[in-house]
Amino acid sequence: MTITRFESGPRMSQAVTHGDLVFLAGQTASNTEGVGVTAQTREILGQIDRLLALGGSDKSRILSATVYLSDIATFSQMNQAWEAWVDRANPPARATVEARLAAPEYLVEIVVVAARG
């Protein structure tokens, strides 16, 4: 089976397809200055839509999602954006955890695996 990498750099690819699966790298917001969890989540979900499309998939085919929050107290703020975006007919398996992210300005990071087709 062929492995295809999208938006690759020296350290990582933003998306990788293999067989019928699309794997996304952890997505963080690029606009973080003065922006809260809900806005960062919205931006990240837009990035996920774009990357899934590159890999031949979409949010209705997400199998699993892991959401990392720098502060679990912001869970409801993240969910505000998530619930407006998620395909309610096809919700993925999801875990949400509190974690120290790569830089203090990152409040949310989301990783997904989706089916292609």
Count of β-strands? 6
Which CATH class applies here?
Alpha Beta
- Low-confidence segments, given as residue ranges, are none
Mean pLDDT: 97
Outline the structure in words.
The chain is α+β, with helices and mostly antiparallel strands and 117 residues long. It contains 2 helices and 6 strands, in the order E-E-E-H-E-H-E-E. It has helices at 37-54, 75-85, and strands spanning 3-8, 13-18, 21-24, 62-69, 93-98, 108-115. The chain has a 6-stranded mixed beta sheet with strand order 1-2-3-6-4-5, with helices on one face. The longest helix is centred in the middle third of the chain and has 18 residues, at 37-54. It is globular and about 40 Å long. The model has no long low-confidence stretch (mean pLDDT 97).
Give a summary of the structure in a few sentences:
The chain has 117 residues and is an alpha+beta fold.
Which characteristics define this entry?
117 residues, alpha+beta
Would you spell out the secondary-structure blueprint of this structure?
Blueprint: E1 3-8, E2 13-18, E3 21-24, H1 37-54, E4 62-69, H2 75-85, E5 93-98, E6 108-115
Helix pairs in contact: 1-2
